[in-house]
Amino acid sequence: MERWVGKVALITGASEGIGASIAEKLVQSEMKVIGCARNIDKLNKTASKINNVGPGEMYPYQCDLNEESQVLGMFQFIREKFKTLHVCVNNAAVIHDTSILEGKTEEWKHMLNVNVLAVLICSRESVKLMRESEVDDGHIINLNSVAGHRIVHKPLYGITKFALSAINQGLRVELIGAKTHIRSTQISPGFVETYLLDKVYPGQGKCDKLFSEMECLKTEDISEAVLYVLGSHPRVNVNDIIIRPTEQLE
C-alpha cells in the first residue's frame, strides 16, 4: 500500500457499514479520502471517528447519488480541491422490497439510478479526472454482491447487480482499449453484518434473526479485500472477488 500514501480516493456510501470500514482502512493507509453520502450528520460523525485513528484524512461530502447534478458537483469539488483522483470505490447501493410483477416504477428507478447509473457516472468522471491529471495507474473498485451472480429472493436488486457485473467487465475492456493502466475490480460479498435489511423491513428484526442463524461476514472482511486489490502489483488486475460467509450456501 506504500504507493498509495498521500493519494486521493473517493468512496460512495461512506457514512456507515462497508463504506465507512473502507474509508477507515484507506485513512490508516495515509490516503486522502472523500467520503460521500446523503446524511451529512452521519458522515461527519464517521469522519470525526476515522480521522482520529489514521495518518490520512477523510473529507465528508454530502451527495445524493440519485441526482446527477450533485454527483457532477462532487467531482468538481474534487477537481478544485485535490486536482486529481487515484481511486474510486463505488460502494453505495439501495434496495427496495419490490418485484417484477407488482413493483412500483419509482422504486425501480431509484435502484437503477443509484446502483447502476451512479456507478457509470462516477466511473466515467473518475477516469476523466485521472486522465486529466495524468494518473495512469488508478483503480475503480465496484462493490457488487453475490446477488450479481445469481437471482434468488430480490430479482430487481439482482438485476441492478447483474448490470454492475457487466459494467465492470465493460470498463476493463474500454480501459485497455484506451491504452491506460487504470484497473477495474468488483468485489461481491455474501451476507455481511450490517443492518441493510432492517431498512427494507423496519421493525421486523430480520437482521438479528439472520445473525443468530449464521456467522456473517464483518465489514472489515470487505475492506481488507479492498486493501488486497489496491496492494496488488500494477501488472496484476484482480477483476472479480466473491466473498461468502463459510456457512452461506447460496
Automatic annotation (TrEMBL):
UniProt xrefs under InterPro entries: NAD(P)-bd_dom_sf, Sc_DH/Rdtase_CS, SDR_fam
Keyword Oxidoreductase attached: yes
Pfam families: adh_short
Keywords assigned by UniProt, alphabetized: Oxidoreductase
PANTHER family: DEHYDROGENASE/REDUCTASE SDR FAMILY MEMBER 11, DEHYDROGENASE_REDUCTASE SDR FAMILY MEMBER 11
Family listed: Belongs to the short-chain dehydrogenases/reductases (SDR) family.
Descriptive protein name: Dehydrogenase/reductase SDR family member 11
Protein's organism: Clavelina lepadiformis
